Structure formats: C-alpha cells, structure tokens
C-alpha cells in the first residue's frame, strides 16, 4: 500500500504535529494510509503495524458495528461529529474516545480524515463525581433516618427479650431468637449506612499508624474466616511509611474486601493480602483468584445496593468507597477471568518538619 507523499506541506505539518490522534484512511474499507504520532502513542502501535491495515484487522474498535455507523454517517452527511465509542489499544488498555471525521481530497481522490479525542480521564472523573454524589445522598439519608429507625428497633428488641424470658413463651423461643436476629440485621444495615457517609458519624479518631501492625493484629481473624470458607489466605505485608487512618474503619474495609474475595472464589481458592509503597502512597492490595467482575457493572462498583450475591445488601463495597474517601485514599480495581485485585492507595503522612 503506497503512502501519500504529496500532501500539502502545511497540512502535513499540522497533521503530523497535532496533539490529537489523527488518521487518513481509504473510504472503501478504512485502510490506514497515514497516521500521526499522537495516534500511534495513544494506541501503543508503531507505524509499520498500522499503515496498510484496517481498524477491523487491528481490532481498534471494541464494537465493530460502531465503525460501520461512523461510515454510514459519513456517507449520509459528508461528516460525523462527537461519535463516542470504546477503542482497544495494542497493550490491552480500553479507552473512551470521541471521533470526528470528514471527507478530504488528495490527488483528486476522496479519503476519510478522522480526529480522535481520548476522554477516558473525563469519563473516569464523571463516574467518580457520580459515585461521590451517591455517597453524599446516602449520607444525608442515613443521618436523617437512622435515629428514628433505631429507636423503635431498640424498643421492639427489648420487649422481645423481655417476653422470651417468660416461661409462658418458652415453646416460642426459636421464634423470638429469629425475630431478634432479623432486627439485628436491620440495625447492621443502618450501621453500614453510617459508614458510607462523608462525615464521621461514629465520632472516631484518626491517628498516625503503621498499616503493617494493624494488619498483623487482625490476621488471626482473617485466617479463621479463610478456614471457614475452605480457602487460603497469603500475607505479603511490607514495612511501609505511616499513614493517617481510623483503625476501626480500616479494619471494616479490610474485612469487607477480604470477605468479597472469599465469596468470589470456589472452595480451595487463594486470596492474597499485601502492602507496598508506591511513590507517595502506601498501597493495600486484596487479590482473589475468582472469575472476575462483569464489565457491565465494573464502572458501578461502590454504588449502594449494587450486588451480585443472593443474600447481599450491596453495601459492603459502598462502605469501602466511603471509608477510602474519608481517608483521601483511592481504590483501583483490575479484573479478568483469572481474578480481581482491589488496590487502596493511602497518602503517606507528611509531618510539618
């Protein structure tokens, strides 16, 4: 496939030096005849791998139908604008991209000029904003109704305990225990609501602490949980700088992430808990060897009441994201058919000196 060499000199300079990924391709099948460095850098290809190939051959469009839709818009209107789709890079990264395209004529022949904008970061920030808005909404709801709900629950629970001690109701003991258990579950859900809130409803204290020491203290409890699930728990805890944390909340976060990891694996699976330093952060990793998280819900993780468990409330991960937010930490999730890894990045505590 020949490369167009007689492009207008000014156009060629603008095309090649443009920071936006750009390409010139055949109208018939989309074969690339020229691309700029920005496109190669964004998609992690070298020029020889792209020129003479079509987007379908390279698998650039995650949904090949989107490429056909762009060509249909081009044929109908002579251009397309702000066409959003997902593109796949050579290194396996998936990007949110917006395409603009129109006809251009070179040496008397029509070609397609496309310009791509990588909006992955924008979409990520939008999702984070929505997540925080949801957390704030849940926080307002929980602060407003928890007191009103807990009071009658406490009253009912007290009367049930009173009556279950009466000999006249001895034969209904199982029923009383069941009702009290259900009230305790409701109270637990309210507590989880309070953990999600942006403020600190539990009035807990934040202290400078070594994450390694905290994890070593709860290791026996996590090991017991692993035995109950017939799974293995591997600890790879490194010495890391101190961070500012609330121990109660971090314990809750670790228990939730570990429990989710065990639930995601079959019996005999191995879960890894590790820590390390990365730049200015201490990273806590909980890695399971399950079947991974469905791509359809990956971007919605942390949304209250989102669950794939038959008996789940959908509050566990929401609690984790709420705790991370209060600690100025960030949760990154990577998943595949071989397992899922949750990484919590805590900022290292900086002294004034």
TrEMBL record:
GO terms for molecular function: protein histidine kinase activity. Transmembrane segments: none annotated. Residues 144-350 form the Histidine kinase domain. Its EC number is 2.7.13.3. Keywords: ATP-binding, Kinase, Nucleotide-binding, Phosphoprotein, Transferase, Two-component regulatory system. Signal peptide: none annotated. The keyword 4Fe-4S does not apply. The keyword Iron-sulfur does not apply. It catalyses: ATP + protein L-histidine = ADP + protein N-phospho-L-histidine. This is histidine kinase.
């Amino acid at each position: 496939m020949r490369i167009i060499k007689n492009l207008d000199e000014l156009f060629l300079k603008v095309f090649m030096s443009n920071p936006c990924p750009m390409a010139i391709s055949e109208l018939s099948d989309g074969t690339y005849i020229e691309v700029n460095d920005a496109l190669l850098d964004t998609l992690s290809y070298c020029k020889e791998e792209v020129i003479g190939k079509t987007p379908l051959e390279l698998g650039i469009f995650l949904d090949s139908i989107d490429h056909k839709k762009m060509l249909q818009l081009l044929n109908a209107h002579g251009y397309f604008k702000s066409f959003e789709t997902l593109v796949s890079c050579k290194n396996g990264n998936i990007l949110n991209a917006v395409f603009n395209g129109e006809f251009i004529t070179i040496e008397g022949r029509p070609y397609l000029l496309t310009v791509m904008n990588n909006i992955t970061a924008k979409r990520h920030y939008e999702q984070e904003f929505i997540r925080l808005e949801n957390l704030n909404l849940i926080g307002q709801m929980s602060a407003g109704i928890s007191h009103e709900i807990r009071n009658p629950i406490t009253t009912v629970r007290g009367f049930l305990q009173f009556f279950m001690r009466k000999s006249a109701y001895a034969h209904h003991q199982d029923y009383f225990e069941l009702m009290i258990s259900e009230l305790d579950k409701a109270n637990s859900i309210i507590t989880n609501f309070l953990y999600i809130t942006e403020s600190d409803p539990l009035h807990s204290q934040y202290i400078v602490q070594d994450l390694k020491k905290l994890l070593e203290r709860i290791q026996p409890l996590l090991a017991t949980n692993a035995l109950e699930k017939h799974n293995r728990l591997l600890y790879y805890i490194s010495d890391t700088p101190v961070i500012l944390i609330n121990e109660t909340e971090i314990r809750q976060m670790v228990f939730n992430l570990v429990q989710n990891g065990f639930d995601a694996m079959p019996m005999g699976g191995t879960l890894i808990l590790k820590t390390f330093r990365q730049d200015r952060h201490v990273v806590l990793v909980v890695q399971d060897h399950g079947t991974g998280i469905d791509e359809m819900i990956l971007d919605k993780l942390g949304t209250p009441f989102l669950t794939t468990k038959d008996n789940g409330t959908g509050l566990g991960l929401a609690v984790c994201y709420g705790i991370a937010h209060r600690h100025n930490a960030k949760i990154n999730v990577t998943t595949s058919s071989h397992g899922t890894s949750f990484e919590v990045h805590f900022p290292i505590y900086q002294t004034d000196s």
